Amino acid sequence: MPDLLELRGLDAFYGDFQALFGIAAAVPAGRVAAIIGANGAGKSTLLKTVAGLIQAPRRDAVLFDGEPIGGLPAHELVARGIALVPEGRRLFPSLSVEENLLIGGRVRRPGPWSLEAIYSLFPVLAERRHVPGPALSGGQQQMVAIGRALMSNPRLLLCDEISLGLAPVVVRDIYARLPGLTAQGMALVIVEQDVSQALAAADRVFCLREGRVVLEGPATSVTREAVASAYFGV
Amino acid sequence: MEWANAIIQGILLGGLYGLFAAGLSLIFGVMRLVNIAHGDLIVLAAYLALVATQTLGLDPLASLLIVVPAMALIGYALQRLLLNRTLGDDLLPPLLVTFGLSIIIQNGLLEIFSADSRRLQAGALETAALPLAGLSIGLLPLLQFGVAVAAIAGLQLLSWRTPLGRAFRATADDPEVARLMGLDNRHVFALAMALSLAIVALAGVFLALRTNFDPAIGPARLIFGFEAVIIGGLGSLWGTLAGGILLGVAQSIGAQIDPGWQILAGHLLFLAVLAIRPQGLFPRLAA
Lengths: 234, 287
What we know:
The complex is a heterodimer of chains A (234) and B (287). Chain A is an alpha/beta fold. Chain A has 10 helices and 10 strands. Chain A is globular, with a radius of gyration of 17 Å. The mean pLDDT of chain A is 93. Chain B has one domain (2-115, 150-276). In chain B, strands 1-2 form a two-stranded antiparallel sheet.
């Protein structure tokens, strides 16, 4: 399958501080890539740069479906089919659950996702559709955040720490729904602190340390020992 | 009876203050920008109406058909070309830039129109009145109050019932995540400023029908707008209208006691609210 997302020597900066150094990676359509690494390794920065929240310095450092998109602003990338579930869920507090979902769908890309489809993926949200986001439990908020991103009918979904702060049973529930998403050809990139969760969910794993890819391989062949040594650089 | 009349006049005047405040409150709500030039933009709208009535021979109310879109266009351009560049984590740059803008507008108007005081003439409408329980209520103030209520109701509907209002609220909540929804913040902010200045246009025309104006009266209108927002409570449009009405009534009662006390009474009410209930009388209920 051709690569949907390809990174070719991607750098990223916060002012003068360089956070990513020459990242190279590829994610085919319909596959799941996991990015792991310690705090501050650059995982969230990588997702934000692909989504356009941080400007990539070079246009051809990010290819999406073969097209160079590095440095394009986030609002244009959503329209092309890249959606990000941000770390910490970040629902719009003054919007109800349904309004949060509707605003996710405002780019009106064609595809399978609609309010009804989200409500059948996460039935509990249908019951709470008129409730403001902050009134939901953490797990339900995460469902809204994922649903909001899906509403744009993305071809590439970036998920930043979707298990953070959630009860294990809720995390299992959310992860159980991910394979259904990629079955329709959507590619998924997840940033995950929980290494075993990441290895279980992903086809391919990238481990970052200090802004560089230090370990890469199929999830099935990456051993815990290799991950541990890549994490800490020992 | 004089007192009843003063209170009714104050309520009707308060509608105008509600209009001053609504645009100010919208902009602060969406982009945390305190527009120091707001009062001067109201005066600019009044002069635009003056030019429209003098050169095109339009009735002042018909001039709204030109002044409202013109001010909205000015608002969009102002935000896109200037004010968007001042927005960030720091509240100070937009404050300084709009302060500078206020000085530029005042001096520009002074240069073009001189310091002479002007007024829009509404003809027979100015003296028309409705008799009500022994009082006589001016048709023009009544119309102005009705327009204020309608504008605030419209703004309220737009905020809570339309995709544009949803975009305003989302961008106000979290501008970064709003970008992930495909919203271009620069465009959303410019639309909010356009809407704010459309309301400013209404306020400017009714101000010019009500009193004399000259290039220097903007800052005082800004203060009245601010006071109405603070009295009403931030984040609530109906609260803003209520704040405007209370300010109007306070001024009117002050003037009834002694003509020199009109402005002072409004300021005293504002200070009292600030001291006793700094969140305002009708702040938006926390969700």
